[in-house]
TrEMBL record:
InterPro entries recorded: DPNP, Inositol_monoP_metal-BS, Inositol_monoP_superfamily, Inositol_monophosphatase-like, Inositol_monophosphatase_CS
Name of the protein described by the UniProt record: 3'(2'), 5'-bisphosphate nucleotidase
Record has Magnesium as a keyword: yes
Alphabetical keyword list: Hydrolase, Magnesium, Metal-binding
A GO molecular function held by the record: 3'(2'),5'-bisphosphate nucleotidase activity
Cofactor: Mg(2+)
Entry similarity comment: Belongs to the inositol monophosphatase superfamily.
Positions bound to Mg(2+): E69, D124, I126, D127, D266
Pfam families: Inositol_P (PF00459)
NCBIfam families: bisphos_HAL2 (TIGR01330)
Amino acid sequence: MVTDLERNAALHAVRSAATLCSAAQGRLVAGETLTKGDDSPVTVADFAAQAVVVEALTDRLGSIELVGEEDPADLASDDQASLRDGVTALVSTQLGHDVAAGQVLDWIGVGGSDGRSDRYWTLDPIDGTKGFLRGDQYAIALALIEDGEVVLGVLGCPNLPNPDGSTGAVFVASGGEAVAYPAGATDPVRVGVAEPATLAEARFCESVESGHSSHDDAAEIASRLGIVAEPYRIDSQCKYAAVARGDASIYLRLPTRPGYREKIWDHAAGKFVVEQAGGVVTDVDGASLDFRHGRRLEENRGIVATDGRFHDRVIEVVRDVLA
Ligand SMILES: Nc1ncnc2c1ncn2[C@@H]1O[C@H](COP(=O)(O)O)[C@@H](OP(=O)(O)O)[C@H]1O
Ligand SMILES: [Mg+2]
Ligand SMILES: [Mg+2]
Ligand SMILES: [Mg+2]
């Protein structure tokens, strides 16, 4: 069960983080990016967005349990002082008043939950950091998980092109429906998956980064399915938004190495947007995503999201190609 208070708080939180990220993208300077222990990039905006989401949620909901991607420990050392200052400045600007660095680190640290309780939030403050740094697509992804099931997903996609020519939308999935708030619109529009008549008419999307999803395997799968359209390569959970509103029919995320486990914040919000829009999301073996194992999807491998109609056929071919 999700309350209106929770839904509104989540929508407000994601919008606030999206405003912060939009302002920061393209203005990052040397020293505002860090390479984390797993060799992935993180920027001042990733940390600041996590802080403002926590501020927005806790201000409206009181204390929360949150599995957030970013860890304040990455900002703790003495040589990270300028990075900390950059994060604090972004948060202060977004909130409209000066905030102490210690407060900002405390907000970020709220995301340290292990994700093993009955009810928790999960946040990717910037999903697609590599896309963000390239000036391309990224998403702010926030979800609420209850008894291992996603019950609310909010996906902010500040750079996503809309059919009406505007740019940017926030997607909200809850209570049996998915809606989008395109930039500038106050009223939400209902979102639903595409239903191409044949697989040959379908389009699939995948990561821009071939290190995140195997482009070669995807090309082989598409060819066996008779898909002729070029892949729609787009960073972040914007891929889920694309399937949810019918820009594409299939999202393939194919393991690039054995042993990699997907992070829950990379999928919880997006997969629920697709499901509430009428689609189906599983791993590459056709199994449901299992959010009961902490910070990673320990029991799943890769992702296949579709409009639903061809899901079984797609899984069959995915399994053949990956075997
Ligand atoms: N080897 C790998 N396989 C799959 N996903 C990976 C990966 N290495 C990193 N990632 C994840 O890929 C996400 C971006 O996905 P995409 O390629 O769809 O834009 C990253 O999220 P962040 O950008 O939040 O760190 C990161 O968590
Ligand atoms: Mg990251
Ligand atoms: Mg991510
Ligand atoms: Mg991220």
